[in-house]
Write a structure and sequence with these properties.
Helix content: 55-70%
Mean pLDDT: 76
Structural class: mainly alpha
Order of helices and strands: HHHHHHHHHHHHHHHH
Number of helices: 16
Radius of gyration: 21 Å
Distance between the termini: 49 Å
Strand content: under 5%
Length: 400
């Protein structure tokens, strides 16, 4: 009974610490989703040059796409003419970091991880893209012509942005997800999950604010809610029950980092949801470098991503992709351990941001943010369950 109470206490503590920063990240991600033109993603990624690979990494880094939501987006870019190296660079940087994960990293892991994580993600993405450029088969013959809808689905497992939003073909009919679309009459239930009335009233600040809120608190939160809660529960469980020497037995060297890579590679987890799990690993005694390996390898790879790369770009590209993610995550882990030891950054890792909770005013703000975030999660879950029941009822009526 005491252990259960401690588990709940640890979960609530982690949830409260992450809530304001997660809300901030969601808000920034929503603003980016509404204001960053889709065409920007295609303009600079058509060649295999170092510049195109670098631009793909920088463009992908802040986008609010998770490890499985990036799949239809990347397929759309690839079939729209993006080169293999640029597509791989985008595939690595986009799920490894994002505006929401940076804010949560600061809240739960401290300023060092909040800075090192996006920098390592961009470097890792450029490295992966260049490996494919130099060693891969970059013949651009593709069975699918540019402009073909890559998504095969408009609702991926995360689906923050589908390929419909990223495939641009001037000769094709403009979809309802396209920001260039004209007035949309059915604003309530469109493929983007947000009202498109702004299209009929261009420049409306109020309409933009509503769209930002609807996307950030609706679809984007839906995309991360399950894994975020799983991550928080696992982190609380690790802090409650895992003995410190269970993970520290691997040490701080290569074996510990390989173990973290093996744990992270097959997981379906986004950058934000992986953060609380990393807190648990650190609390159990794992080195910052080994935890960074998990934070990089986990979001960047999963079974679906690997299958997509093999199908769309070939086995050699897949092998280079995995090799690049694993080797660069381990190299980044070693570099972080050296920096922490050499620069005396230990006090800036884990718990440093939580010190703000000691003040009464700050504690009230964190508590209010946690209540708001919990309310939004419950609202979205209720909507999801209601929609599922409605579809089941319609299906039953149709069959009879």
């Amino acid at each position: 009974m005491a252990d259960a109470a401690l588990l709940v206490e640890n979960f609530l503590s982690l949830f409260m610490e992450s809530a304001p920063w997660l809300l901030l990240g969601l808000l920034v991600a929503g603003i980016m989703h509404e204001l960053v033109p889709v065409s920007l993603l295609q303009k600079h990624m058509g060649s295999s040059s170092i510049g195109a690979v670098s631009k793909a990494a920088v463009i992908g880094a802040p986008l609010p796409l998770c490890s499985c939501g990036v799949i239809p987006a990347a397929i759309g870019l690839r079939r729209s003419g993006a080169s293999k190296p640029a597509t791989v660079s985008f595939l690595v940087s986009t799920p490894e970091t994002g505006v929401d994960s940076v804010s949560v990293s600061y809240a739960l892991l401290g300023p060092v991880f909040a800075i090192v994580r996006p920098v390592a993600a961009v470097i890792s993405a450029i490295y992966a893209g260049l490996m494919v450029r130099w060693l891969g088969d970059n013949r651009e013959a593709n069975s699918s012509s540019p402009g073909v809808d890559a998504g095969a689905s408009s609702s991926s497992c995360c689906g923050t942005k589908t390929s419909n939003e990223l495939v641009s073909d001037e000769s094709a009919t403009v979809s309802c997800c396209d920001k260039r679309a004209g007035p949309v009459t059915a604003a309530e239930d469109n493929c983007c999950g947000t009202s498109q009335q702004a299209a009929s009233t261009p420049g409306s600040i109020g309409r933009k604010i509503v769209d930002v809120w609807q996307y950030a608190s609706g679809k984007l939160l839906d995309d991360i809610i399950v894994w975020l809660l799983i991550g928080l529960v696992l982190a609380a469980a690790i802090k409650t029950w895992v003995p410190t020497d269970f993970l520290t037995q691997w040490g701080d060297g290569l074996m510990a980092m390989i173990v973290m890579a093996v744990i992270g590679i097959p997981m379906y987890i986004c950058a934000t949801a992986s953060t609380p799990i990393a807190v648990g690993f650190l609390a159990a005694g794992l080195s910052p470098g080994a935890v960074l390996v998990f934070l990089m390898a986990g979001p960047a790879t999963n079974i679906s991503t690997m299958g997509m790369i093999n199908q769309e770009m070939g086995r050699r590209t897949l092998i280079l992709y995995l090799f690049s993610v694993i080797t660069m995550s381990i190299a980044s882990g070693y570099a972080l351990n050296l920096l922490v030891a050499g620069m005396g950054w230990e006090q800036y890792i884990v718990g440093s941001a939580a010190e703000h909770l000691h003040g009464g005013a700050w504690q009230s703000i964190y508590a209010l943010c946690a209540i708001l975030l919990a309310a939004l999660m419950i609202r979205n879950l209720v909507k999801t369950v209601a929609a599922s029941l409605s579809r089941s009822s319609e299906h039953s009526d149709c069959c009879h």
